Amino acid sequence: MVSGAVAFLKSWNPLLSPKEIHSILLENSPSAHLDLKKLAEFISKKKIINNFSWKYPSFSLNGSDTILTINGAVGGQPSITLYNVEEGQSEKFLLYSDSFLSGTSTVLGDVDKNGFSEIIAAPNPGGGPQIRIFRSDGSFMNQFFAFPENFHGGVNVSFIKKDEKGEPALVVSPKENYAPEVRVFDVAGNLLHSFLAYDAGFQKGI
């Protein structure tokens, strides 16, 4: 199990030194027993490596216990890593181009109402306003522009399980340099309605 934990840590961040890995393992589990899910939760809470963002430490994927980590931090590639606890193997998927290093925001939500959460990503300032949706295995599902394509102020995104029609929806808002407009989309990317949360001249983000 310790070798599996080491492989998991390296798959998540190959820049970790042996000393850093040893320190993480010792602090997480001073005894001989080591639980990978608890390790993921431990790192998520401690935020040991500032260049990486941890979310959603564990879930079941196709009947296998899987740890999901999302690197949404500035300076890192916008990626998802799926680590299969039983097989000790990991897969990595990109949320956006590997050259986009401005960071992302992510939420989980059951977009297609099949009982499993999808991954919904939005870019930080510096990227175009493209919302991207992925299945829990990392495969691409859908994308759309939440604001005009030339807007690069970053987007906040939230998931609504049921709107007024009982359907899942996505709520977006600009992070900066845009009117304080809240937009609501269906999961296919169709605009349902929008409104100003503050005066139109306020452009510091909401």
Q: List how many beta strands DSSP finds.
A: 12
Distance between the termini: 44 Å
Give the structural class: alpha+beta
Low-confidence stretches: 46-63
- Biggest sheet: strands, sense, closure? 4 strands, antiparallel
Order of helices and strands: HHHEEEEEEEEEEEE
Q: Share of helix among residues? A: 10-25%
Report the radius of gyration as a whole number of Å: 19 Å
| Arrangement of strands in the largest sheet | 1-2-3-4
Task: Please report the number of helical segments.
Answer: 3
Residue-averaged pLDDT: 76
Beta-strand residue percentage:
25-35%
Bulk shape? globular
Descriptive report:
The chain is of the alpha+beta class. 16% of the residues lie in helices and 34% in strands. The protein is built from three helices and twelve strands. The chain has helices spanning 2-12, 18-28, 36-46; strands spanning 59-61, 64-71, 79-84, 89-94, 104-109, 118-123, 130-134, 140-145, 155-160, 169-174, 181-186, 191-196. The strands form three sheets. Strands 1-2-3-4 form a four-stranded antiparallel beta sheet, covered by helices on one side. It has a four-stranded antiparallel beta sheet with strand order 5-6-7-8, with no helix packed on it. A hairpin with an 8-residue loop joins strand 9 (155-160) and strand 10. The model is unreliable at 46-63 (pLDDT under 50).
